[in-house]
């Protein structure tokens, strides 16, 4: 069984744990850097990216999170987690982990639409998926290696690049676990591949 962590510094942590377990994988809340080495994959949850970044620095997670991704272990960033993964953030000089080749815009759906739900198509994953958006970002552009998996209102709201997965909404807040299941599949695949290399 693969073990998937949820970065537990801030945000929607428990809901992701429940969702990982519903997909038949083992889940762990990660609060210390040394816990990362037990993991096959990691979810960066939704919450507040600025606060999360402050805590990442405070608890010395920054380099460890980058190395985790660079070692080939899958990461899934949801909402604020998408902002943390992005290589470029509109209107901001410094991005955070810069593990995914994409430019994102924060709080991008506007004030009138702070939170909403929408049915979207997740390419290759679900024809119709109820997506919960909360002060959501979206992807303005993706690099060559990234593949857009979903759009809403003409904006890219989910993407995959190699072993990185990201979405602008909160898949952990409904009982539809298909996107998390997709990530669990990515983790299984990567774990087998990394084992065969070692
Ligand atoms: N629900 C969320 O994760 C919101 C993200 C938040 N707007 C941010 O910039 O971090």
From TrEMBL:
Reactions that this protein is recorded to catalyse: aldehydo-D-ribose 5-phosphate + D-glyceraldehyde 3-phosphate + L-glutamine = pyridoxal 5'-phosphate + L-glutamate + phosphate + 3 H2O + H(+); L-glutamine + H2O = L-glutamate + NH4(+)
Record keywords: Glutamine amidotransferase, Hydrolase, Lyase, Pyridoxal phosphate
CDD domains xrefs: GATase1_PB (cd01749)
Binding-site positions, L-glutamine: 47-49, 106, 134-135
Enzyme Commission code: 4.3.3.6, 3.5.1.2
A Pfam short name: SNO
SUPFAM superfamilies (alphabetical): Class I glutamine amidotransferase-like
Metabolic or biological pathway: Cofactor biosynthesis; pyridoxal 5'-phosphate biosynthesis
Catalytic center residues: 79 (nucleophile), 170 (charge relay system), 172 (charge relay system)
UniProt similarity note: Belongs to the glutaminase PdxT/SNO family.
Subunit structure: In the presence of PdxS, forms a dodecamer of heterodimers. Only shows activity in the heterodimer.
Chain's role: Catalyzes the hydrolysis of glutamine to glutamate and ammonia as part of the biosynthesis of pyridoxal 5'-phosphate. The resulting ammonia molecule is channeled to the active site of PdxS.
PANTHER family: PYRIDOXAL 5'-PHOSPHATE SYNTHASE SUBUNIT SNO (PTHR31559), PYRIDOXAL 5'-PHOSPHATE SYNTHASE SUBUNIT SNO1-RELATED (PTHR31559:SF0)
Designated name of the protein: Pyridoxal 5'-phosphate synthase subunit PdxT
Protein source organism: Salinibacillus aidingensis
């Amino acid at each position: 069984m693969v073990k998937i962590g949820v970065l537990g510094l801030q945000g929607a942590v428990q809901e992701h744990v429940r969702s990982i377990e519903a997909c038949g994988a083992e889940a762990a809340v990660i609060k210390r850097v040394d816990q990362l080495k037990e993991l096959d994959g990691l979810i960066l949850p939704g919450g507040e990216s600025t606060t999360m970044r402050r805590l990442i620095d405070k608890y010395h997670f920054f380099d460890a999170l980058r190395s985790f991704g660079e070692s080939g272990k899958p990461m899934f960033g949801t909402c604020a987690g998408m902002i943390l993964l992005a290589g470029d953030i509109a209107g901001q000089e410094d991005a955070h982990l810069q593990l995914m080749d994409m430019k994102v815009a924060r709080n991008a759906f506007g004030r009138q639409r702070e939170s909403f739900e929408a049915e979207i198509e997740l390419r290759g994953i679900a024809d119709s998926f109820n997506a919960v958006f909360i002060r959501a970002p979206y992807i303005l552009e993706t690099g060559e290696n990234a593949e857009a998996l979903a759009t809403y209102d003409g904006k890219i709201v989910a993407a995959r690049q190699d072993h990185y997965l990201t979405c602008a909404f909160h898949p952990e807040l409904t009982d539809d676990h298909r996107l998390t299941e997709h990530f669990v599949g990515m983790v299984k695949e990567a774990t087998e591949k990394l084992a065969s290399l070692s």
